[in-house]
Amino acid sequence: MTGLGRGLGALLQDSDSVNANKPSGRTPPYETISSMNEIDVNFIEANPYQPRSNFDQEALQELADSIKVQGIIQPITVRQLGRDKYQLISGERRLQASKSIGMQRIPAYIRTADDQQMLEMALIENIQRENLNAIEIALSYQRLIHECNLKQEELGDRVGKNRTTVNNYIRLLKLPPTIQAALRDNQISMGHARALITIDDLVSQLKIFKKTIEEGWSVRKVEEEVRKLSLVPPTDENNRRIQTIKQEIRSLQFRLSSYFGSKVSIKSDDNHKGEIKIPFTSQEELDRILGSLDLEKKA
After folding, report:
1. Which family does it belong to (predicted)?
2. 172-181, 213-222, 236-245: lowest mean pLDDT where?
3. Per-residue pLDDT averaged across 34-58, rounded?
4. Distance between CA atoms of residues 299 and 283, nearest Å
């Protein structure tokens, strides 16, 4: 589990320690096993909390071919539900690949885990070990926050990412379905999506998105077009000065929005007086913004 920090390795250790510290008021339905065992693949049922629904069949076949030659290098992880009955925690691709080449038994670690631990372990294992697309990562982060009751900073510790990175992924879920689908299918990159999400007007957002797809715009090109949305065509020296100021403000808004993971608005008059607004929709989002500023809430 090297390199996972507080992630999957710590969770698995926690589940063992929790079980070991429970009072022995009743006999458990099975013995908790910490060593590796070989289990009949027919005794293992799917993980109901598996966050990934689509698997690359070509990559799956490559894994199966590798297993034929090398065997299972890394055992899967399961929890035992009863005699000859197990539920997968992590290793869905390894299990599927093994079944496809007719393997009858597969090496596995048996762990104790409740439903919430199952979900958390499955999500973190997939985030850290699988080549998930940005939308799948965003959905996994969102589920960890809402279903596992993790705060964003705790989530960052679990997956080895800073809070800004985590929030940038979660913000992708605010994009309209059409743009989310394009990101999921690798038609646009994370950089494209982060630029598009700063556009408040849906019509303008979809217009730029459409041109990005049709004309193959780079991330920099999309960022330029986003900044142009608030510009007034120059007709004289004064307008050129106004345009420059607005462009600088738009650029600053974009940078601050990326930093705070929230849409930031900046207003400024000709005397360079104005205001910066950072909206939030929940206590958690406020805590995140304050954390980014290294400020603590005052009682």
Report:
1. Belongs to the ParB family.
2. 236-245
3. 77
4. 14
Give the residue numbers marked as catalytic.
92
Residues 12 and 86 in one domain: yes
Q: What pLDDT, in 10s, does the model give residues 175-191? A: 999 999 999 888 999 99
Strand order in the sheet with 105-111: 36-40, 105-111, 76-82, 85-90, 44-45
Q: Which two tokens stand for residue 37?
A: 């065992």
d(CA 203, CA 16): 53
Q: Measuring CA to CA, how many Å separate 102 from each of 78, 99, 205?
A: 20, 5, 50
Q: Same structural domain for residues 148 and 246?
A: no
Among candidate residues 180, 188, 193, the one with its CA nearest the CA of residue 214: 188
Please check whether residues 160 and 201 belong to one and the same domain.
no
DSSP string, 99-146: HHTT-SEEEEEEE---HHHHHHHHHHHHHHHS---HHHHHHHHHHHHH
CA separation for the pair 199, 114 (Å, rounded): 42
Mean of the pLDDT values across residues 197-208? 89
In a domain, 233, yes or no: yes
Which residues in 99-121 are b (16+ Cβ under 10 Å) and which e?
A: eeeebeebbbbbbbbeeebbbbb
Domain residues for the domain of 51 are 8-21+29-164
On whether both 160 and 204 belong to a single domain, the answer is: no
To 10 degrees, what angle do helices 163-171 and 152-159 make? 100
pLDDT tens sequence across 101-117: 999 999 998 887 777 77
200 lies in some domain:
yes
Mean pLDDT taken over the chain = 76
3 lies in some domain: no
Q: What is the pTM of this model?
A: 0.49
Beta bridge partner(s), residue 38: 107
Residue 208, in any domain of the structure = yes
Q: How confident is residue 15, by pLDDT bands cut at 50, 70 and 90?
A: very low
